[in-house]
Design a protein that fits this description.
Length: 215
């Protein structure tokens, strides 16, 4: 019998590190992720995201969340793809860890991005999930570089990047909200610099490698 995970391998991918699990989000998981985001991701006066999706009226956040994930899936191809995984700790959905890339077969690089529900922040989960994703990309998807970026007024995100081993790669000015500009720090991680967490276990790898053209 065919399952959607056979068609879209992100949905069969599972990366575990102890009590932490990263895996593809079902449509019902997307509804739960939207509800988590509705409860808050950051104080309203801050804006950590390039696209200010958390500024939307609260009642519109779950649909916007689902549409974002469906849009990324709709555009999936070996030339441009992303992994947008849910993050669970002890079985509770706490946030999302992503990776996006273009021309991966040539470039072997891409950008990580992540968020946690506000009630789950500041307890080391952000560091664990980024370490797990980076170990997965280097060890199982043959990446040679991973980039990230954060506005300079986002110390938690920058601290996580540094703890994982990323090094600073330049400051630029970026548009944030309408009529707002903010300084932005680019970061870069190479395999030898990765500060690893506990070992990860991966299931569902081979179909993903095939669909992105690695095998
Ligand atoms: C960024 C984010 C994913 C990090 O996850 P987290 O679980 O909160 O991070 P951790 O607890 O693993 O680590 C946070 C680190 O930031 C540090 N930190 C937090 N606030 C800080 C501040 N104001 N100044 C200096 N350091 C700070 C913490 O001390 C900690 O470092 P330490 O363990 O060395 O003490 C999470 O905070 C989040 O979702 N924020 C809102 C969305 C967001 O900013 N996404 C990233 C967009 S680029």
């Amino acid at each position: 019998m065919s399952a959607i995970a056979d068609v879209y391998p992100e949905l069969g991918l599972r990366i575990t590190e102890g009590s932490l699990e990263l895996r593809g989000l079902t449509d019902d998981d997307l509804a739960a992720l939207g509800a988590l985001a509705q409860r808050g991701v950051h104080p309203p006066e801050e804006m950590p995201f390039y696209h200010p999706w958390t500024d939307a009226p609260t009642e519109q956040i779950p649909l916007g969340m689902a549409q974002y994930h469906w849009g990324r899936r709709a555009g999936f191809s070996p030339a441009a793809w992303s992994l947008d995984l849910g993050v669970w700790v002890d079985g509770e959905l706490v946030g999302s860890q992503g990776f996006g890339t273009t021309d991966y077969l040539v470039m072997r690089t891409g950008e990580t991005g992540s968020w946690l529900g506000i009630e789950h922040q500041g307890r080391g989960i952000g560091t664990r999930m980024r370490r797990a994703m980076c170990a997965f990309l280097f060890d199982h998807l043959d990446a040679v570089e991973i980039t990230s970026g954060a506005f300079c007024d986002n110390p938690a995100s920058i601290a996580v990047s540094h703890k994982v081993g990323y090094v600073d790669n330049g400051i630029t000015r970026k548009k944030r909200r309408e009529n707002e500009v903010a300084e932005h720090l680019s970061l870069r991680l190479t395999p030898d610099a990765l500060v690893r967490g506990d070992p990860i276990e991966v299931t569902g790898l081979e179909p993903l490698r095939r669909v992105i053209g690695l095998d």
